[in-house]
Request: fold
Amino acid sequence: MRFFRPGLLLLGVLAVAGCSNPRFEPHTDADGKFTANFPGKVKTETRSQPSEVGMLTLKMVGAETRRPNVAYMVGYFDIPRGAFYDFDKATEGVKKNNQATVTESRDFKAWGVSGREVQFAIEKPKKGNICLRMFIHDNRMYQVMVVGANVTLSSSQVQEFFNSFKLNSTQATPTR
Reply:
């Protein structure tokens, strides 16, 4: 079994015009096999990333509001067959790549799979938090995240975005 060492969190610039009360609309990503509610126009970025198990194709889908400045994103990549994914190492990778500290971490279960929610405090590019829900479904790693100055795992805006995410193959609602 090959060991997959993650830590790949794309926090690319997703420049989208927003407003103070953004309207969230469902967006379906056919390749990612999911639907989630995003504010405004959704941008997509795809890149190749070398890893210990070979080249990975990472896709990030997201939108950003301007006031408050908050980014809503879903990232995913396929895990090569036989590779092992470790949420603890993923958390450490996010900490290292973003010079972040973990302020909260908890397990969750949805669609018959287990995952983890983690809140990170960041100082750059601006002081704030990364709220991340990560899980694996059908050998695909999903990262559902909200990034902003005043977001927390327990905030309604984060939980509403997390809970708007649906796998198209199951259309299940997450449960704790």
Summary: The chain has one domain: 2-167. Residues 58 and 77 are 5 Å apart (CA to CA).
